[in-house]
Amino acid sequence: MPELARRLGTADAVVIGLGAMVGAGVFSAFGPAAVAAGSGLLVGLVIAGVIAYCNAVASAQLAAVYPTSGGTYTYGRERLGEWWGFVAGWGFVVGKLASCAAMALTFAAYAAPGPTWLQRLVGVAAVLLLTAANYRGIGKTALVTRILVGLTLLILVGLVVAVLSSGSLETGNLDGWWDGDGHGVYGVLQAGGLLFFAFAGYARIATLGEEVREPERTIPRAIPIALGIVFVLYLAVGTTALLAAGADRLADSTAPLTVTVEAVGLDNLGSVVRVGAALASLGTLIVLIAGIGRTSLAMGRNGDLPRWLAAVHQRYQVPHHAELAVAVVVCALVLTSDLRGVIGFSSFGVLTYYAIANASAFTQPASDRRWPRAVNVLGVVGCTVLAFTLPVGSVLTALVVLAIGLVGRALVRRRVVRR
Description:
Blueprint: H1 10-21, H2 25-28, H3 30-37, H4 41-65, H5 72-79, H6 82-111, H7 116-135, H8 138-164, H9 184-199, H10 204-207, H11 215-251, H12 256-263, H13 270-301, H14 320-336, H15 339-362, H16 373-387, H17 392-418
């Protein structure tokens, strides 16, 4: 069976993890989180970061032992059984397809303000261009991601420094953070679930495990490093946004970081924020396309998706059939869906994926463990709680789609047995 080339070192893996996390979420998630918990969104951010850490180390521990494409789809199959692996893989694929659409729509909203039809066409163009970049090989993906991530980090750090230096901050805006400004525990947990969307992506390093050099050493180092950088950045951005604009103004805006700079009289930075959001969306989208392609490759190899998806390009050594299929589906979603709907659906699928990652890591023997099992227990519980704080409509839709996948697999297996 054809295999992928191992071309990524630690620095490349960290960059890909950063590209998957530092996306449009940081430019949009603080608004809904402020609605849910007011200034208590900072507590929600810490909760999301803790659960993300649990998920990250579980993924790192598993990837060191199973350095192949597929991520938790592969880990679930190896540690828990084929059905658990399928649930993880199916949840990842459908959830991340929705994430791709969300990133493409976010990019278009910032890059092409205007009629909806124009934004949809711009989103489709972004998907096609980044698919072409991925098609040329994982080295091209890492190069493009490095450029986009570098520019996005520069913009976010510059925003934090400029706002903190403005002299127009209100420390009273942080009052009430300990009780979620009266929103209670549920509101804080809901904020955590919403902000988790901005963290999701660190396991993309593990998903690309078949293309990482020395994966048993590189992956466990790269995932925590990438997550740590992003957590510090998000905490700085969230605190700065609250000090400058306050929870109420953030809650009333769909572009909370634009409101942040305007609140301290830095209106001229608004265009810079829009550029940062567009670049971040592209950085996330290119890595998402690569990650879904690799998971589809692994599922195709095992017959859980059409085996046509398991093809690897002879020259570029990428799962070209899978990436083309991803592009077609995402373009269809961009042309037919809206941003808010796809984000909630995506979050549920991703949290399901990571719950199974933690459960898989829990079963590993002591010789393969790098962190205590208590971390895995916290990860499973945390993912479950955050998943069910999402809007009811998103939860029900995601459960229906997961059920369709399970029924479909059962029917296919039944036909195979009969033959």
